[in-house]
Amino acid sequence: MSTVVCPLTQLAPNSATRFDVEGRAVAVVRIGDDVYAIGDTCSHANVSLSEGELWCDEKEIECWKHGSTFSLITGEPQTLPATQPVPVYAATVVDGMIEIDLEAQ
């Protein structure tokens, strides 16, 4: 079951925005016309990933507090100090609207 979060045009290219999707904090990332959805809370510290730097070429997002980066594809940490992954969710664009499916990965 997908949840519509916003129109694609509402997100600036190469940016991350936090949304509350069915009670979960989700960082929705737009790189060009591709969208990704990842749990918004760093697994190392209780910090919002959507406030960190986006590494578009690597498809990673960096936690601004300690510098760990996470894959937008797998949620796996790419650098220390984080060692645990964050959840990733299916994100699609349907009729210009970004939809997130919390069950599909």
Describe it for me?
- This protein is mainly beta and 105 residues long.
- Helices cover 0% and strands 45% of the residues.
- The protein has one domain: Rieske Iron-sulfur Protein, CATH 2.102.10.10.
- The chain is built from no helices and nine strands.
- A six-stranded antiparallel β-sheet has the order 1-9-8-4-3-2, with no helix packed on it. The protein has a three-stranded antiparallel β-sheet with strand order 5-6-7, with no helix packed on it.
- It is globular, with a radius of gyration of 13 Å.
- The model has no long low-confidence stretch (mean pLDDT 96).
Q: How are the strands ordered across the major sheet?
A: 1-9-8-4-3-2
- Flag low-confidence runs: none
Amount of beta strand: 35-45%
General form: globular
Q: Percent of residues in helical segments?
A: under 10%
Structural domains: how many: 1
As a whole number of angstroms, the C-alpha radius of gyration is 13 Å
Helix and strand content put the structural class at mainly beta
Distance between the termini: 12 Å
Q: Could you report the average pLDDT, rounded to the nearest whole number?
A: 96
Question: Any idea of the CATH class?
Answer: Mainly Beta
Largest sheet: 6 strands, antiparallel
Topology pattern, helix = H, strand = E:
EEEEEEEEE
- Write out the CATH superfamily name: Rieske [2Fe-2S] iron-sulphur domain
| CATH topology (fold) name | Rieske Iron-sulfur Protein
Number of helices: 0
The count of strands amounts to 9
Oligomer: single chain
Gross CATH architecture = 3-layer Sandwich
